[in-house]
Write a structure and sequence with these properties.
It is built from 28 helices and ten strands. It is 49% helix and 9% strand.
Length: 676
């Protein structure tokens, strides 16, 4: 019982870690392309915040670091984004996982810190989870690293070894790593608690908000123009109010339920399974309906971390008789044996049996549970046939060769249904046959060229039987010491980071306790921008605003450079202003008093154009403009109009001012505002 409790809190299944790595890397890649679309406007010196202006304004606050500050022009930033993409891709496939995990963390921090007016709660959540999981083996499953380790041992040399599917026991694994190292880590507890703290803090924020109690929070949130996604904007006008009320209560319930469920140490498959499902639904709802950057998608990826090993084991035991295949390969071809070894490792559900072409007295076939039995060989499988092609035989005895055999083998693997169907399409199958024939004719030469002998193993010099020593399982003392030191450093680092994050969380959220924050704690959370304020959709406001620019181009036409259309001052007509989270957060902050020092760079950028005017002729560029923050109220569910303007704050003006002339009051200082 004690071991189960320990593993519940201090261990995350390697398959969950691998799935999280893949899901989160895809989230990071999607986020990168979202930012890449605005690389000139938001990241280069030609945009809203040149490097020097950003660094100058940060001189008093400090604790902001980004390697993107070294890149100035749009071209340089495009190159930097390519490097970031490469780091994310290597993290995705799990190549040198720990290295590219750390580099991905640096890239994510740099993207957020290059322009802090763009960051939001999504950045904070993504950095926190990426930082804590850095201490965990995310490359131990579903990765190139794991596959490469597996291919190095054991060395299957024939079909009998390939068909040996005996699972390595936990005791055998522990025997190889027990001296000085353990997979049990505080990092697993820290990651789980970080997820729980995010949702619990949100629940505490929402507990005192009326719209979360009466079910109107989603309604109000979707009518905040800078929060709503394209899907949310479409749904708010057509979906029934009861749907939004139900979603509000579902999210509120999930915020309370997930932290409790992940801490229950019994009925793990049920409690953790429900927690993972609720977290996925919670994150997906926010990601689809709202434009909050990384937040929703990060929580969807984090749901993978809560999948218990019992669920993975049940999935691994799934067996489909219709996908059973026997693969007959060339036993004298090194590349062919290597490919069979690779297929064995990819065959998670044990659908494949292997047989060399030098054994045609019968056929090995696999049954449920991984048992390999001897059956009668189909008459169509002849010595002449297996000499020239790989053969795949299904459970009914149907024989496939060449490219079709490859398609049948792929179908037996996890997620192989769609690729297999594509491989069987007319034209594609003919191309595969042609490519296979070219390979088959040269397979021996290819084996030699890549350093594989007839057994499929790298060619080695024969060992001297006198000088060779028998293998031993004894771990050298130096290795035990190194593992002990590295393990201790890891645990100390995790404990320090978690305490720093917990103190920051208690400071920024209405938790019922407080933790002192010495300077090392402050530095640990502020440098990577783990600010931990989890006030998502708080409060769902009954009043909000939008940034509008009344501009005129050199032809005298009225235009808003943010949208490329005529300025819209009526809140009811703002539904087409789909600028995205990055611009929305930037424009919201730039109108606030505390961000006033950044307005000059924004005015200079608008004087040279705007996001909607790039590439247009000279006479369509701005000759003057006025910038406004339009305040509006949001009506309760079922009331009309949904939004109504209540005030107009003039923020700044440039040159001739706007074409519409809605407010001719001159701006003497940036903090002088007029309200109507």
């Amino acid at each position: 019982m004690g071991k189960k409790i320990r593993d519940h809190f201090l261990r995350i299944d390697a398959r969950s870690l691998g799935l999280f790595r893949i899901a989160f890397a895809l989230v990071l890649i999607g986020d990168l392309f979202r930012r890449w679309a605005w690389v000139r406007e938001l990241y280069s010196n030609e945009g809203v915040l040149p490097n020097h202006n950003h660094l100058f304004n940060l001189r008093d606050t400090g604790r902001v670091w980004s390697f993107l500050h070294a890149f100035s022009t749009p071209g340089e930033n495009h190159f930097a984004f390519v490097l970031i993409l490469l780091a994310y891709l290597f993290f995705l496939v799990g190549y040198k996982t720990r290295v590219f995990h750390a580099l991905s963390l640096l890239c994510l921090v740099s993207l957020g810190s290059r322009n802090i007016l763009l960051e939001n709660v999504g950045n904070h959540a993504a950095v926190a989870l990426l930082f804590f999981t850095l201490f965990l083996p995310l490359g131990s499953r579903f990765s190139i690293d794991a596959l490469a380790r597996s291919m190095r041992a054991p060395d299957e040399k024939d079909a009998a070894a390939l068909n040996d599917r005996t699972r390595v026991t936990e005791a055998e694994i522990a025997a190889t790593r027990a001296p000085g190292w353990s997979p049990v880590s505080l990092a697993a507890l820290a990651v789980t608690l970080q997820i729980a703290l995010i949702l619990l803090s949100s629940a505490l924020w929402h507990r005192g908000a009326g719209p979360w109690r009466d079910g109107s929070a989603i309604h109000y949130g979707l009518w905040v123009e800078r929060w709503a996604s394209d899907l949310g904007a479409a749904a708010r006008a057509s979906a029934p109010a009861g749907l939004f009320r139900g979603l509000t209560w579902l999210l509120f319930a999930a915020e309370w339920a997930v932290p409790v469920l992940v801490l229950i140490p019994v009925a793990r498959r049920v409690t953790r399974g429900i927690a993972a499902g609720l977290l996925a639904v919670y994150g997906l709802t926010i990601a689809l309906l709202f434009s909050l950057g990384l937040y929703g998608w990060t929580l969807v990826a984090a749901a993978a971390l809560l999948i218990p090993d019992e669920s993975w084991d049940a999935l691994a035991r799934r067996f489909s008789p219709s996908r059973v295949r026997t693969v007959i390969y060339d036993a004298d071809c090194g590349v062919c044996l290597w490919t069979a070894r690779l297929l064995k490792r990819l065959d998670a559900h044990r659908h494949l049996a292997f047989q060399g072409n030098d054994d045609l007295d019968g056929m090995w076939a696999i049954e449920a549970g991984g048992n390999v039995v001897r059956k009668e060989l189909p008459a169509a499988v002849t010595p002449a046939l297996v000499e020239g092609t790989v053969v795949a035989v299904d459970a009914q005895g149907n024989v496939a060769t060449r490219g079709r055999a490859a398609a049948e083998i792929i179908r037996a693997l996890p997620l192989g249904g769609l690729p297999s169907a594509l491989m069987r399409l007319p034209g594609v199958s003919a191309l595969l046959d042609a490519l296979y024939d070219r390979f088959a004719a040269r397979r021996m030469k290819i084996s030699v060229a890549v350093g594989m002998d007839a057994c499929g193993l790298p060619q080695r010099e024969p060992a001297d039987p006198i000088e060779s020593e028998p293998p031993t399982d004894e771990v050298p003392p130096a290795v035990r010491l190194r593992r002990a030191i590295s393990g201790s450093v890891r645990e100390i680092g995790v404990a320090f980071l978690f305490l720093a994050t917990l103190a920051q969380t208690a400071k920024e959220n209405p938790l019922p306790f407080a933790i002192p924050q010495p300077q090392p704690f402050v530095a640990a959370v502020t440098w990577p921008r783990m600010l931990a304020r989890w006030d998502v959709l708080v409060p769902p406001p009954a009043e909000d605003g939008a940034f509008v620019i009344d501009g005129q181009n050199r032809k005298g036409a009225s235009i808003d450079p943010l949208t490329g259309k005529e300025p819209v001052f009526e809140p009811e007509q703002m539904a087409s202003r789909r600028l995205g989270q990055l611009w929305n957060d930037y424009l919201y902050r730039i109108h606030l008093k505390e961000w006033e020092p950044y307005q000059k760079a924004f005015r200079d950028y608008l004087a040279k154009g705007g996001p909607a005017l790039e590439g247009r002729p000279t006479d369509e560029q701005l000759a003057g403009f006025d910038a406004y923050w339009i305040k509006y109220t949001i009506a309760p569910p079922g009331s009309a109009p949904a939004r109504a303007a209540v005030a107009r704050d003039k923020l700044f003006t440039h040159s001739r001012g706007g074409r519409l002339g809605v407010d001719r009051l001159p701006i003497l200082r940036p903090d002088v505002k007029r309200q109507e």
